[in-house]
């Protein structure tokens, strides 16, 4: 590729479509998109996607950038001209990446952007525009590959200082390859800096998601996070990320480590209670009384167990269940917060917190309705909260 020759994406796309006996992409009708939406910058959700992506959201505060996007949207024929202007090309290229490849979201976020319009580019147009990205970034990618492979050689020779320097250099050249971030995580793992390993591998997954990385790379990053948590003795978190790895790419290693971790967690609980038989007996007695509906007695036994072993999140989870049944919501919330403090990835604990908040919401709506029986919002809120509370839940942890 002649680096001095201007790249004209629209000319390239039109030429490719003409070779396929297609009409002008701006006028072409398609089953999957209206005629005006066959260019990434004509995306009706462009500003929602720009705001959602961490790489571009701050640019919305730049009036020049916002006006640039609006100008291109209003007249797609100016795209090639603006694309080749040095002041604009870096942000246009990144915006293309967000629109074309940033479709999978982030590992640390569950929220999905609320799109006002669900139309998308036809698949063949997506491929053509990705080819534009590859063309403009080709030299950078080649250089990044060269530096990354040299870093791999240094890593295998256990020259971690040199490897770290070169991986960071590769990221500066081309920051869209998750393998560099993941390999930095591997360096921290080998040097027993497990917390930093976790941080780097999470960043690797973020970058991978943003740029549509292959699932087996994402799975490998999750696996390394799990191994780091295991080294730190956090077996529950290790299990969580081994499961994430297996969900991405069902490898034998991920499944083996997941099974081993489940066994370790089980044995850890069994071994502890084997040497603390009294605490185990109290817990079992509490479970038995809870199932009989004796919530006061169950809470008393859980309290006795906690007095002997205060680091078991399940005991606080179960006592909070008793307090909910007894409508002692403040005490229930206190135990729920303690449960989550001990184990942040305890799904039952978060479900428990949601139920407590539902009860508190119902009580607030009920009080509002009592004070003003004509308030339809209060009545409807009370009825909806009551309906949610009456759903069947079973958060008691019997292990």
Describe the protein's architecture and organization.
Pfam families: TPR_12 (PF13424), TPR_19 (PF14559). Keywords: Repeat, TPR repeat. TPR repeats lie at residues 144-177, 219-252, 313-346. The chain is mainly α and 399 residues long. The protein folds into three domains: 9-132, no CATH class; 137-273, Serine Threonine Protein Phosphatase 5, Tetratricopeptide repeat (Alpha Horseshoe); 276-389, Serine Threonine Protein Phosphatase 5, Tetratricopeptide repeat (Alpha Horseshoe), CATH 1.25.40.10. The protein is built from 18 helices and no strands. It has helices at residues 9-19, 46-52, 63-74, 79-83, 89-101, 123-156, 160-173, 178-190, 194-210, 215-231, 235-248, 252-275, 277-291, 295-308, 313-325, 329-342, 347-371, 376-389. It is flat and about 80 Å long. The termini are far apart. 33% of the residues are buried. The model is unreliable at 22-36 and 104-118 (pLDDT under 50).
């Amino acid at each position: 590729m002649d680096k001095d020759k201007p790249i004209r994406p629209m000319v390239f796309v039109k030429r490719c479509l003409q070779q396929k006996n297609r009409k002008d992409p701006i006028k072409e009708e398609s089953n999957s998109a209206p005629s005006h939406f066959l260019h990434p910058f004509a995306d009706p959700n462009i500003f929602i996607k720009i705001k959602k992506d961490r790489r571009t959201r701050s640019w919305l505060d730049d009036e020049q950038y916002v006006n640039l996007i609006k100008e291109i949207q209003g007249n797609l024929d100016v795209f090639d001209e603006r694309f080749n202007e040095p002041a604009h090309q870096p942000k246009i290229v990144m915006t293309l990446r967000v629109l074309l490849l940033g479709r999978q979201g982030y590992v640390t976020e569950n929220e999905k952007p609320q799109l006002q319009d669900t139309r998308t580019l036809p698949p063949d147009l997506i491929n053509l525009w990705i080819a534009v990205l590859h063309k403009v970034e080709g030299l950078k990618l080649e250089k990044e590959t060269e530096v990354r492979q040299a870093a791999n050689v240094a890593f295998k020779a256990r020259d971690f200082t040199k490897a770290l320097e070169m991986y960071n250099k590769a990221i500066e050249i081309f920051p869209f390859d998750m393998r560099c971030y993941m390999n930095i995580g591997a360096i921290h793992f080998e040097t027993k800096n497990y917390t930093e390993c976790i941080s780097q591998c999470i960043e690797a997954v973020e970058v991978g998601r943003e740029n549509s990385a292959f699932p087996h790379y994402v799975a490998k990053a999750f696996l390394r996070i799990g191994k780091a948590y295991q080294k730190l003795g956090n077996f529950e978190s290790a299990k969580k990320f081994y499961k994430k790895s297996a969900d991405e790419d069902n490898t034998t290693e991920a499944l083996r480590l997941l099974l081993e971790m489940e066994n370790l967690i089980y044995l850890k609980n069994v071994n502890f209670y084997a040497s603390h038989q009294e605490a185990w007996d109290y817990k079992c007695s509490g479970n038995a009384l809870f199932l009989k509906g004796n919530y006061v007695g169950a809470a008393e036994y859980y309290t006795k167990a906690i007095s002997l072993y205060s680091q078991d999140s399940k005991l606080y989870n179960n006592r909070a269940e008793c307090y909910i049944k007894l409508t002692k919501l403040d005490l229930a919330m206190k135990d729920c917060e303690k449960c989550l403090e001990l184990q942040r990835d305890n799904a039952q604990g978060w479900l428990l917190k949601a139920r407590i908040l539902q009860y508190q919401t119902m009580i607030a709506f009920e009080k509002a309705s009592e004070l003003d029986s004509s308030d339809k919002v209060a009545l409807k809120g009370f009825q909806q909260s009551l309906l949610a509370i009456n759903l069947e839940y079973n958060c008691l942890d019997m292990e």
